[in-house]
């Protein structure tokens, strides 16, 4: 990275020794769950992110049933492998119709999933490997122990977790150092602040925050009349009176953003960036224009007065509706 890299993009530390850019690129939407995506534009967006100094790419082996990993392989074909850290989630069980059937965290599943991931990515190692969700039938010690074996073999560099609670985090970290916890964190999803974030900091574990724009809800681009044809149609926050309430919060945030001369999305991302140098927001940009907007958040400096104004506009727990549908919430260890 050069001096032209946006302020704050140069690096942050996750865990003991993983250095990544202050913003990571979440690639899920390029393959799954948000409707059709333009593959050429997706590759161009990944290239633009790397050129801007983004060094963390986040994916899952179940995003598009392997499509996302192959897309990243294509995008990195003319780039040096060590220019980026690739973070991979595994364990979600899918079917050919796009359905979801739980999570598999067995040691033999870890070895199997990783083998396929390495082949699809065309690499000999994954920088961060993590179960997408806790498998309630398998002790976390067994899952982490199996990943640790792959660390010993050089196939994995760092171990991460996703959407687990403080107790699970402690148990896992006792088996092998955990580099980062990937979990939803935004202005309207702040549940981690009570127990999970303090525990991560006590243990020296970083946080990669997804959903920083709450799936577009607090991006400033969403309108009440917009029709949802993807998984957000089942999200409580996008339904009926909840949506009206939440968009009113966005309008309050827009007034603060206007005073700073930035977009709503930039202000929301900057707020997450301001929560600590051990927090790395993942932005799910699928197009270069959205990526450019997100990168602009790195230039936004928030004063104590700005933070107070943001808090007044969007108080903690102000959102209407849960972040996932009830059936999904029950499966989140982080919510227990």
Automatic annotation (TrEMBL):
Keyword set includes DNA damage: no
Record-annotated NADP-dependent oxidoreductase domain positions: 23-313
UniProt xrefs under InterPro entries: Aldo-Keto_reductase, NAD(P)_OxRdtase_dom_sf, NADP_OxRdtase_dom
Keywords: Oxidoreductase
SUPFAM superfamilies for this protein: NAD(P)-linked oxidoreductase
Pfam families documented for this protein: Aldo_ket_red
Name used for this protein in its record: Aryl-alcohol dehydrogenase-like predicted oxidoreductase
